[in-house]
Amino acid sequence: MAVGARIARERLRGVVAPLVLVLSATAVYALAVLEHRGGGNGAADSALEGPVFGFGLPILAYLVSERVCDGARLDRSVDVVARYGADRRAALLGVLLVSAASTALSAVLLTVSALIGAHTLHDASWASDLRASVGIAAVSGAVYALWFGAASLFGKRGGGRKWALILDFLLGAGSSALAAPWPRGHTRNLLGGMPVLDMPQSAAWLALLAIGAASVALSVSRTPS
Amino acid sequence: MSTLTFEAVSHRELTRVTATFASGNHVVLGGEQDGTAALIELAASIAAPALGRVLLDGKAPFLQAAIRRGIAALCAVEQLPPARTVTDALTTALRARGDARSARAVLDAGGLGHFAACRSATLSPREQRALAGLLALTHPAPSVLALFEPLTLIGILSEDFVRQALTRATSAGALVLSSATRVEDALRIGGTLSRLERGTWLDPSNAYQPLAEVTLRVRTPEPRRLAARLAEAPEVRAVEWSGGQELLVRGADLTRLAEHVVASARSEAIHIEALRCQPPSLEALTAARAAATQTWYERAQREQRALQAGTEPPLVQTRGIH
């Protein structure tokens, strides 16, 4: 697993990944400031539901997954160490771990940027919003990373990852049973938005965790040793 | 004792290759376009075959990490694990195969200590291959050593180091499978010779087939009479006439067959309008070429052994294979 984590970390190394993160955080901050100036009270919710969790997080998670897998299928992305005898499943878990941690951290940074832009420093709700949102950001980020990892097991070059992003945008936006398998609807529910199948927020947490666990299980079961 | 088996394997250039290698030194003659790169990649378990199976002692190494740990390989194109420096890349590879040695120790063993601090991104493809070759050749206990053109490493690695590593692996009971484009390189590597030609496998037993049969196309206005005359001749294996003015005359030796056809026609006063040789099939040509190569290789090996033993080499003529 350490070998997998090591190659994933090396693939994320460089200026591109931090640059994309900084640009995304800046864009999210600017949009949140605009929301704050235009809308006032609901600025934080709008900034989180739209720019952060609606667009920024899924796209960043997709990019991180693409990068740690070196643009290939998740199972083939570890071939570079599997040829020396590393267990593909263990190495793959290392790759997923780094991918999940990086995406969770990125999601937290985006969330903090959005909240800074949407609040003045004297707002009483600032601290409570931060407390509530950071946990959602971390879990959603990790789940998105695992989800894209599992999706990249489909297609010759991991094209399933792209389809997972598109379907999350299209089907996850609804609240019917079609939205249940995608992280988007449950994340929206946790932020106080429209729930999927009228689920309570506690069930949305469980649904997100189940999606993450199912993604890991699928990734491991579809990969040979 | 390990046995590597290819069962009806089709993969990239390879076409239904069935072959078995036991422990010892094996060299496969052929270039990348003949499928040697694909063969080594499959032997190294870097890829699973598109069709067929590759088994090491009855198990598929591509599916089992524990078996892969005993396989050391050098492929046609190599890429080290992603890392900032060569030392980091080699450390990742060594940890992946459960080797506790330091990267520095491995580099020093091959005389490549100066690469330790180099950035991986600045390495040329040849240097990457040399470092991958070093990793393969320094495997402490390989069950299989699969090497694509190992002699091309010489220059970065010393010839002595490469040859000693091959000898050490063979004498420790490993299965050493190397490829070589030139017969001279195959000879330097030594071992049992096989051949891949345009994806077709030719093992030593069927590489001996000579160009068994030649066919002459004879155009004459009296094919029936000529066929009757030719059928009596011992040089002629078969005469085929399917109507029309053309006969197919088959035999073993082209010159003798042509002379006999002309003599028979003359003796019966039969006019021959055209006489031409039908080209042999590609399979027959391939087999004949492989046989010639095999013969050359074995003669050269005998000469080399005789020279090493200090005796007079046998008086044989060797010619380059074209």
Question: Which SSEs are present, and which pair or pack?
Answer:
The complex is a heterodimer of chains A (225) and B (322).
Chain A lengths: L1 H11 L3 H24 L3 H26 L10 H4 L5 H31 L6 H27 L8 H12 L11 H8 L10 H21 L4
Helix pairs in contact in A: 1-5, 2-3, 2-5, 3-5, 3-6, 3-7, 5-6, 5-9, 6-7, 6-9, 8-9
Chain B lengths: L2 E9 L2 E9 L1 E6 L6 H8 L7 E6 L8 H4 L2 E4 L11 H11 L6 H7 L15 H13 L6 E5 L10 H13 L3 E6 L2 H7 L2 E6 L2 E3 L11 E6 L3 H8 L5 E6 L4 E6 L2 H14 L6 E5 L3 H28 L13
Parallel strand pairs in B: 3-7, 3-8, 5-6, 6-7
Antiparallel strand pairs in B: 1-2, 1-4, 8-9, 10-12, 10-13, 11-12
Short summary:
The complex is a heterodimer of chains A (225) and B (322). Chain A is mainly α and 225 residues long.
Descriptive keywords:
heterodimer, A: 225 residues, mainly alpha, B: 322 residues, alpha/beta, Rossmann fold, Alpha-Beta Plaits, 2 domains, six-stranded mixed β-sheet, disordered C terminus
